[in-house]
Amino acid sequence: MTAHLFPAGSTAVRRDVVGGRIWTAMPYTVLADDGATLTLTARPGTESLAPASWTTSRRHGDVAARRRGLDDLATGRWELDHWTWRDTVVIGRFTAGEPYSVHRFLSPEGRPLCWYVNFELPYLRTAIGIDTFDLYLDLVVTPDLASHTWKDEDEYAEARRLGVIDDATHRQVDRARDQALAQLHDRTGPFAPDPEAWTLPAPGPLPVLPDTVLSTPAARG
Questions:
Q1: Is the pTM of this model over 0.90?
Q2: Domain residue ranges in the chain
Q3: pLDDT tens per residue, the chain (221 residues)?
Q4: CATH code for 11-46+85-198?
Q5: What is the 3-state secondary structure (H, E, C) of 2-68?
C-alpha cells in the first residue's frame, strides 16, 4: 500500500497519542515527503495543543506541574490546553520505522542553535499527519555536532517507574541511543553534510490545527 504523501507547503499534524487519546497536537508546514522521510517545519506563533500540566509549567516555571503531568499520563487523566510555539524555528525529520526524530533549532533569523534527537515511537501516518508518542529522553547536540548532552533522563526514569514506558520500549530506546550516537559520530543519516536541508525555510502562512485533530488516532498493530 502506497503511503499518503503530503505536498510541500501543506500542513501535517504531529500528534502524541497514548491509550487511544491525544496527548499533544502540533501543526507543521511540510518541506518534503518521499513516503519514508517526512521533513517538517514550525515557526513562532504556531498554535498547538498540549497537556495543561505542561503548559502551566512552561508559563509559570512550575516544576511540580510538569511532574504531575507524568502522573496524569500514567492514570489516563489529563486535559488539553492551547500553547503557542515561540522563540525558535524548528526543522524536524521523521523517518519511517525509526524510534526517534531529528530536529534542528534555529533563531528566527536563521542562526543555528542546536540539534535535538527526540526519542519516540515510530510514527504512523494519518489523514492529517503522523501519530507517535514522545518517550521523554532527548539528545541535545551543539550546532557544530562536536558535543552532546542527554536531557530529561530523570523524567525517562520516572516514566519507566510508572509503567508509561514498558520493558520492550525501553530496549528499543537503548538500541536507538546507540544508533543515534553512531550516526552522529559517523556524520551519517540526518547528520550527513547537507546544509540546504537544514537552512531557514522561506516564510509563509502559519499552519493551523484542523477541526478533526481530536479524531480517532491511528491504531498500532
A1: yes
A2: 11-46+85-198
A3: 456 899 999 999 999 999 899 999 999 999 999 999 999 999 999 999 999 998 998 887 777 777 788 999 999 999 999 999 999 999 999 999 999 999 999 999 999 999 999 999 999 999 999 999 999 999 999 999 999 999 999 999 999 999 999 999 999 999 999 999 999 999 999 999 987 789 999 999 999 999 999 988 877 75
A4: 2.40.380.10
A5: CCCCCCCCCEEEEEEEECCEEEEEEEEEEEEECCCEEEEEECCCCEEEEEHHHHHHHHHCCHHHHHH
